[in-house]
């Protein structure tokens, strides 16, 4: 007996019966399915013979969707006819159901037939006879077949123990026979899946991630696996399984207006490519080979292999984003287990104005009004990148539906949030991808459309052009302390290849685009000129260093001339060259290339003019007059952009004043964008450009009262700031552990190492210290306290916050002890309060 009740195919364990299986011919003849095989061949070749039960005309080549429909109709017609002939009838105790491609109505040219013969505990001899009459004609016609014969309890038992079999049976569809029997299986498998999903979810996700590791990411692979790769057809089936478990929608997170047209269109496009891949290869194949891409692109009327690669990237990234949303939503929908059930429900923790954290996601506050708040999109994205928490799909959809476009030029707060996003390193990749898949990134940067999903023309490139730009910015975030303008480094990294995909020299085209983007962002004209030059000359250093003779003086002179003798531009291009190379692919950046570019930069600096020393800002005459009157004065006035204010503090110049004034501002959630610190007579005159993190700023009278208390020693500002920072970090850690089951990364780890630069002045004992570091809550307060601890008096200071980076210059009076030891003491003190990079794991060390 060839077909026993426990026989199995893809729907359960055991050997798989294929077309070449040997054995005696069952009753009914060896060529009963020859007409089916012949009709399949005619459909694939566009033959002229009509096919019973199949759609399609005579003598024309069916396109991919029509071919799939025709194949489904053809096989259903044959199976229905054959099933009735061998006794699989209504009320006969038998039912034939399909899983796999036929079950999903997605039958491809060379897909296996995945069939299950159900029976109502019939006599084994009768079951064997019916099964043999059904399977043997298919085998003898060389039609690949995965089969099993089961009762309903047997099928449910397999589904309960084998998660792969369960996923297959979730797609089961009745073909012929007893409909009630099929419905019992369909309803039983789905009910069992919903009941057991709590215990099987972790296994399902682990299996999915293992599949991704084996098969790679479709969007960025030269020869992607369309079925099992990340963003492939298996992921669509995963979403369907989570939907059946009632944990998420079948198409979460995206609508038809998003780039790529949403999940349904992305799914159809992958199916079409895989259909043509089967037709071109003449066999079942899931991996798209480079030599087949042009033919498939032409068959689908897409274009050449590059056009096909761009379409596949778009579709795969759309599916990947939908899966991320679906898995996260499903995980949050599951009931808590173990001790987590006893903990209080997740609270809504404020992150920024109109932005809160809830259940491990960044969401909108209840009182947020997206239609009235154009900067909300950037605040949400910046909060997501800095905390490492994903943006809620519902929040992104709400923003996509209601958020207005930012006016031009952008408000300073929006530009700063963009810089915070870009400065968050690798965490920015997921945030920007989410914005892009929901159409929000394209609103912020309309020029992005030309590079979105654009495949590289050079095999050395790992990523699509748009992803390469984001990866370059992520690498550049680690170099921000090497340059005097970290903001321009981040923007230049994001835009350096923005001219690709438009024809012509992409550096020239990109430079023109950088002008309009810089104006939109609200940059100063001089900064727009620098950004434009970065994009125009981003290849100058690597091409010159690797292709020209550096010992020839004309080589260096041409570079200096091209850069206009601008030392700031030179250091920006140096950092950008390394970030660009690292983001290109493995092996592009190495010691040889690094040393050549470094030598070129060194020689250029030798013939460039020296840099000017930092200098204090001039004092406002009104502030000088107020300082002469003595006492403590605090003024808060609107600045030149909405939600930005200037806080002026005038008080007797005593040790600790700067630290306490900055601490009071930080405790009241006022972010310091810049500060100018000076003195007049016996009074200090300190001005801070700030913006409130939440709501309206506090009253100037309250700030004055708190400052007086701090000066009197009634407030321990450093302890209060540390407590506030620890509370935020602990809330983030608890959310990560409870909602995602993973430990949170400490928020104080920096992307770039801090850098301290010393400048000598003409005054004895007076030095200028420039600090380049990443920002943290109350950093200026902590720095001033560190100076006080070392006995260094701050004569004046210029403080600038550029996104998540600070470039602070302090003129210090070291009290006649300007020695190497005293400088080292100051340096150790300030390095003790700035964020440091995460320590690298040493070889042979245990887990971090």
From TrEMBL:
Region annotation (Disordered) ranges: 1-37
Cofactor(s) listed: Mg(2+)
Domain ACT: from-to ranges: 646-720, 768-847
Superkingdom of origin: Bacteria
Activity regulation, per record: Uridylyltransferase (UTase) activity is inhibited by glutamine, while glutamine activates uridylyl-removing (UR) activity.
Entry EC number(s): 2.7.7.59, 3.1.4.-
Keyword Transmembrane attributed: no
InterPro entries xrefs: ACT-like_dom_sf (IPR045865), ACT_dom (IPR002912), HD/PDEase_dom (IPR003607), HD_domain (IPR006674), NT_sf (IPR043519), PII_UdlTrfase/GS_AdlTrfase (IPR013546), UTase/UR (IPR010043)
Transmembrane spans: none
Key word Repeat present: yes
Catalytic activity: [protein-PII]-uridylyl-L-tyrosine + H2O = [protein-PII]-L-tyrosine + UMP + H(+); [protein-PII]-L-tyrosine + UTP = [protein-PII]-uridylyl-L-tyrosine + diphosphate
Region (Uridylyltransferase): 1-350
Domain remarks: Has four distinct domains: an N-terminal nucleotidyltransferase (NT) domain responsible for UTase activity, a central HD domain that encodes UR activity, and two C-terminal ACT domains that seem to have a role in glutamine sensing.
Function: Modifies, by uridylylation and deuridylylation, the PII regulatory proteins (GlnB and homologs), in response to the nitrogen status of the cell that GlnD senses through the glutamine level. Under low glutamine levels, catalyzes the conversion of the PII proteins and UTP to PII-UMP and PPi, while under higher glutamine levels, GlnD hydrolyzes PII-UMP to PII and UMP (deuridylylation). Thus, controls uridylylation state and activity of the PII proteins, and plays an important role in the regulation of nitrogen metabolism.
Full protein name: Bifunctional uridylyltransferase/uridylyl-removing enzyme
């Amino acid at each position: 007996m060839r077909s026993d009740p426990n026989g199995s195919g893809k729907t359960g364990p055991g050997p798989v019966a294929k077309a070449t299986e040997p054995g005696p011919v069952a009753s009914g003849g060896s060529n009963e399915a020859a007409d089916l095989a012949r009709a399949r061949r005619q459909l694939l070749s566009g033959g002229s013979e009509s096919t019973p039960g199949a759609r399609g005309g005579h003598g024309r080549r069916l396109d991919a969707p029509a071919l799939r429909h025709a194949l489904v109709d053809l096989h259903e017609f044959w199976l229905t006819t054959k099933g009735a002939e061998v006794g699989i009838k209504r009320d006969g105790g038998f039912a034939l159901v399909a899983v796999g491609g036929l079950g999903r109505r997605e039958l491809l040219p060379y897909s296996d037939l995945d069939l299950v013969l159900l029976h109502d505990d019939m006599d084994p001899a009768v079951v064997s006879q019916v099964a043999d009459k059904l399977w043997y004609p298919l085998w003898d016609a060389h039609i690949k077949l995965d089969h099993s014969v089961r009762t309903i309890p047997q099928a449910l038992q397999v589904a309960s123990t084998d998660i792969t079999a369960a996923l297959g049976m979730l797609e089961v569809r009745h073909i012929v026979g007893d409909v009630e029997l099929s419905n019992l299986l369909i309803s039983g498998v789905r009910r069992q899946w919903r009941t057991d999903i709590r215990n099987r979810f972790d296994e399902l996700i682990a299996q999915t991630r293992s599949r991704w590791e084996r098969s790679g990411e479709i969007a960025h692979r030269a020869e992607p696996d369309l079925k099992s790769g990340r963003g492939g057809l298996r992921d669509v089936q995963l979403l369907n399984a989570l939907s059946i478990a009632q944990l998420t929608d079948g198409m979460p997170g995206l609508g038809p207006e998003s780039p790529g047209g949403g999940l349904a269109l992305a799914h159809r496009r992958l199916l079409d490519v895989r259909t043509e891949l089967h037709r071109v290869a003449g066999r079942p194949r899931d991996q798209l080979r480079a030599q087949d891409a042009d033919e498939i692109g032409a068959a689908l009327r897409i274009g050449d292999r590059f056009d096909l690669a761009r379409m596949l990237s778009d579709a795969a990234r759309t599916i990947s984003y939908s899966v991320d949303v679906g898995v996260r939503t499903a995980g949050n929908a599951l009931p808590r287990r173990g001790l987590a059930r006893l903990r209080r429900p997740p609270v809504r923790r404020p992150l920024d104005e109109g932005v809160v954290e809830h259940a491990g996601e960044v969401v909108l506050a209840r009182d947020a009004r997206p239609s009235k708040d154009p900067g909300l999109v950037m605040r949400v994205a910046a909060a997501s990148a800095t905390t490492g928490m994903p943006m809620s799909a519902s929040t992104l959809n709400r923003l996509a539906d209601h958020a207005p476009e930012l006016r031009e030029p952008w408000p300073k707060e929006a530009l700063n949030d963009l810089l915070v996003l870009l400065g968050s390193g690798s965490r920015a990749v997921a945030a920007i991808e989410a914005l892009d898949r929901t159409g929000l990134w394209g609103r912020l940067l309309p020029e992005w459309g030309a590079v979105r999903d654009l495949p590289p023309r050079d095999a050395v490139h790992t990523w699509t052009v748009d992803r390469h730009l984001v990866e370059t910015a992520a690498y550049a975030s680690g170099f921000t302390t090497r340059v005097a303008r970290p903001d321009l480094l981040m923007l230049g990294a994001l835009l350096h290849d923005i001219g690709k995909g438009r024809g012509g020299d992409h550096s020239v085209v990109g430079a023109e685009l950088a002008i309009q983007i810089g104006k939109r962002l609200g940059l100063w004209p001089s900064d727009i000129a620098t950004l434009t030059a970065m994009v125009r000359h981003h290849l100058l250093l690597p091409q010159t260093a690797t292709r020209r003779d550096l010992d020839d003086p004309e080589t260096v002179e041409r570079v200096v001339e091209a850069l206009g003798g601008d030392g700031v531009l030179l250091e920006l291009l140096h950092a950008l060259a390394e970030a660009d190379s690292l983001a290109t692919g493995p092996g592009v950046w190495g010691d040889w290339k690094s040393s050549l570019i470094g030598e070129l930069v060194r020689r250029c600096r030798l013939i460039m003019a020296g840099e000017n020393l930092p200098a204090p800002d001039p004092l406002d005459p009104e502030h000088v007059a107020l300082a002469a009157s003595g006492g403590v004065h605090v003024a808060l006035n609107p600045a030149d952009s909405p939600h930005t204010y200037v806080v002026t503090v005038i008080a007797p110049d005593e040790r600790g004043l700067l630290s306490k004034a900055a601490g009071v501002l930080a405790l009241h959630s006022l972010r310091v964008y810049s500060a100018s610190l000076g003195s007049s007579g016996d009074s200090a005159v300190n001005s801070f450009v700030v913006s409130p993190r939440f709501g309206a700023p506090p009253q100037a009278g309250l700030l004055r009262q708190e400052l007086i208390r701090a000066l009197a020693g009634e407030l321990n500002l450093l302890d209060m700031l540390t407590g506030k920072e620890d509370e935020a970090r602990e809330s983030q850690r608890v959310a990560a552990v409870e909602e995602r089951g993973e430990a949170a990364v400490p928020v104080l780890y920096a992307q770039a190492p801090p850098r301290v630069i010393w400048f000598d002045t003409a005054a004895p004992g007076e030095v200028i210290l420039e600090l380049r570091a990443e920002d943290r809550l109350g950093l200026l307060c902590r720095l001033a306290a560190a100076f006080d601890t070392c006995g260094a008096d701050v004569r004046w200071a210029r403080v600038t916050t550029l996104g998540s980076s600070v470039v602070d210059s302090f003129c210090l009076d070291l009290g006649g002890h300007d020695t190497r030891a005293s400088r080292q003491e100051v340096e150790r003190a300030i390095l003790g309060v700035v964020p440091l990079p995460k320590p690298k794991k040493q070889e042979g060390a245990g887990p971090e």
